[in-house]
Amino acid sequence: MKWEEANSGRADDRLKIDELLVTLSGLEAEINLLKRRIALLEEEIARLRKENARLQAELQRVRVQLDQETLLRIDNQNRVKTLLEEIDFMKRGFDSELKDLQAMAARDTTNENREFFKNELANAIRDIRAEYEQMMNGNKSELESWYQLRVQEINTQSNRQNAENNYQKEEVKRLRNQTSELRGKLSDLEARNVLLEKQIEDLNYQLEDDQRSYEAALNDKDAQIRKLREECQALMVELQMLLDTKQTLDGELKVYRKMLDGESDNNGLRQLVEQVVRTSAINEVADTETMRVVKGEHSSRTSYQRSAKGHVAIKETSPEGKFVILENTHRAKEEPLGDWKLKRKIDGKREIVFTFPSDYVLHPFQSVKIFARGNGIANPPDVLVFEGDDTFGVGANVQTILYNNKGEERATHIQRQSQQTTTS
């Protein structure tokens, strides 16, 4: 029942591990996808940064151009000022000439001359003023149109640059938010991945524990089966002994019957005894004496009991105390027995202790036979010799116990012998 439960639990654990592995594969694929998306976003951010740097350089160039245009404007303003000063200078010169002409006209007392010079002066002043106003208006219109054009271009470039900068800022902000969100998801997935790996590790440990429990249960069942087989063998031996005893007794009973009944021609013991009894009854009146033939048979029964708390068990002990055999029941695991002790207690009185070498290792599915001194030849690692005594001891109650190097009991073998008397 425990073996079936262990198999069922092991199958459930394997299914759960497979499901967790599928989930882990999906999470790893999602993590790789998020990492690729983050890489693409980082490339997009790098491209936007380069574009931003280019636009910043363009803005810097426009600003330099604006500074140059501002300097050019200041230069033009200075030129206008210089021209205005020249015009003012020319005006003052013309005014001086006009005054001279007026003075000359004043000195000329002729009305005709006076009127002539006056008309000429008015015409000159009108021409100069018209030329001056035309030149001023042309320069003013040209400067105003040029400045308006340059300011419009600068405003257009500035607005476009501001719009691009705002778009880039919004895009960078969006990408940063998306990157932060993806990093948060990546952190959650990594944490979940770690949790799933921890669960898989725990399940692997649990599976190993279940396997060890299953192997221990299997070893216990093997030990129980071997014990039952040994008990059955002992019962078979005892039954055979009883059958042999029964056959012997049947043969003796046949012989006694023949002796009592006698042959066909001769009188047997029964007739002789009856004759003697009748004769005795005639001659003497006394108590009769009954004779009984009692046959007694002594037999002994030996029982064994074994147990183990691991893969190392006591397989066999010699009834004559010549050797002890240990075996490693595991199919793949070595068992280090360095400094382990094998103790034999004889009838609760005598105690014999054998200590394994410090570097001794019992290989998987192998056994070691330990002889008492003088009963065998050492051949490590399969055969060892106990040099401390000539025998492991013989008695009616023999306990063989295996202790590890920490003093913990790992295996036992108990041999009990009981005496029986059969009377017929």
Automatic annotation (TrEMBL):
Keyword line: Coiled coil, Intermediate filament
A GO molecular-function annotation: structural constituent of cytoskeleton
UniProt signal peptide: none
InterPro entries linked to this entry: IF_rod_dom, Lamin_tail_dom, Lamin_tail_dom_sf
Domain of life: Eukaryota
Gene Ontology CC annotations of this record: intermediate filament; nuclear lamina
Residue ranges of every copy of the IF rod domain listed in the record: 1-267
Keyword Hydrolase among record annotations: no
Coiled coil: 17-72, 107-245
Keyword Electron transport in annotation: no
LTD domain location: 300-417
GO biological process: heterochromatin formation; nuclear envelope organization; nuclear migration; nuclear pore localization; protein localization to nuclear envelope
PANTHER family reported in the protein's UniProt record: INTERMEDIATE FILAMENT PROTEIN IFA-2-RELATED, LAMIN DM0-RELATED
Protein name: LTD domain-containing protein
